[in-house]
Request: fold
Amino acid sequence: MTTQPESLEFKAEVQQLLHILSHSLYTEREIFLRELISNASDALNRVQFEMLTNADVRDPELELAVRIDFDEEAKTLTVSDTGIGMTRDELIENLGTIAHSGAMAFLKKLEAEQRIGDIIGQFGVGFYAVFMVADKVSVTSRSYLPDESAWTWVSRGDNTYTLTPAEKETRGTTIEIELKEDAAEFASAWRLEQIVKKHSDFVSFPVYVKDKIANQQAALWRKSPSEVTEDEYNEFYRQLTLDFEKPLLHLHIVTDAPVDIRSVLFVPRHRDRGMFRMRPDHGLKLYSRKVLIQEDNKDMLPEYLRFVEGVVDSTDIPLNVARESVQSTRTMGHIKKALRGRVLKSLRELGEENPEDYKVFWEAFGPFIKEGVAMDFGGRDDVAPLLRFTTSKSNGALVALSEYAARMIEGQNDIYYILGDDLASVARSPHLDALKARNLEVLYLVDPLDAFMVQSLREYEDKPLKNVDDPDLQLPGEPESPPETPAADALSPEVFGKLIMRFKNVLGERVADVRESKLLKDSPCRLVSPDSGPEREMQRVRRLVEQDYTAPVKILEINRGHALIQNLARVIESQFANPLIDLTVEQLFDNLLLLEGLHPNPAQMAPRIQEVLERAVAASAPAGEA
Reply:
């Protein structure tokens, strides 16, 4: 056997790859160590499996482990394992070529986008990440086969590498790295332990840094849920998020088909978790075989569930897949569907079994659920049961749509809702007159997001959602106790017609029409939309975001039997030129816009209110004192 170094050329693809690795920019050069540890872990798994059926293995008594050593002064780093090892031919096959066709075209595309770091680990290129930090790499390996000798593979990342017989007594692989000048940080115990903790904390075998075990090995999510205590879940959540409050909810998901999933997810108790909230971004930690491959994966759950914290692991995920693959592969599709379904199911169960905790959840994350109803077109029916509302009958308590549906009166087919700025204004809305009289419950929608939500949520369990300002609102049932109001026929058609014309003349193009109301009982008037399209829901959003917002043109309905309307009609009949008439019409209109949450500038009402008061006081003062 020759003892002279044998010089060989890399395959063309490897030469190109090494050029890319040496000359491109990287955001996380530390991933080279993750890749070396992952390769070592694979080698350990393979020899462990081999020893189950084969007694003729070199050094069967060796501890299965990964060891990392360094020399800070010499700027060298060593990563060794007691895994399956490699023969001479395997060194050439594994380190001298890239097995997958099309790899280089993909790599060049990612180089142009400066995203090489996203795909280290694919196509068998993980080992070559070492050249991001190495001037020279020596790989000495001895196979588990008793008759095979050791060989050393050496490269400086150029076009060639050398192979030389080596002296290595034990099975496994040792990688010696001469670090580049700007990579001296990796010859530090603290830095190496930090990288192991971040990327390889749950590798199944011990990872030693200078004879100190740096990884946990036991991944909580890889255990059976029956083996994990509540305290262990809470401690894991604290380590994961640095949130010192217990989570509101945890899910431990274990599936084997159609894909392997091991996941622990948490729903926090609060949206803002204070100054110790370290992660600026959202997303789950994505692992493959307990190796971290993405720190903040945003693709495993829909955007509206971005408040969920946790980890996802699967042996079916290729190690360190690119983002495009995360979004598109069938495996990822199965995982996303399973996680989404379990989170929504657990939240539904929380709402049914623990309303008090669900109230805490809703106050923190209700807007996210509304976003889900608006945006998850295919899964809206799964998200809608999580919605909660204050209603005209709930006395401030939160009501689910299922509870509302269970309380619907005989003959009621629709779910009624009202949009407004706040609970106080919608509770006083004239739209509620007829519904209260018929014992009909109304959902109070006072969040700006509600306008988006109801455009998507047009029905619930075949029951249409209907805005109470619908121009053709038809209500079931009869009023239970009609309020005592002056008779509507106390005004003659002629007098009432003059009143209608006065309203039209004063308000002009600000109203589409003025007409008698068929539903009002306690209120003098109301505004209804000219049509029942989605445009009316968006008016509240426009008022918040448009600087030149103007109130929408609506139909004004007048309660002919209301005392204020009847008195106003009589004043018009007897004192046509009285300036209080127009001021009163204007104020009635502005009051309605305010209650509807559509007034562009409520402060504009103050001068008119003051003028009305001055005239009213003057008119009522004793003669000679005005």
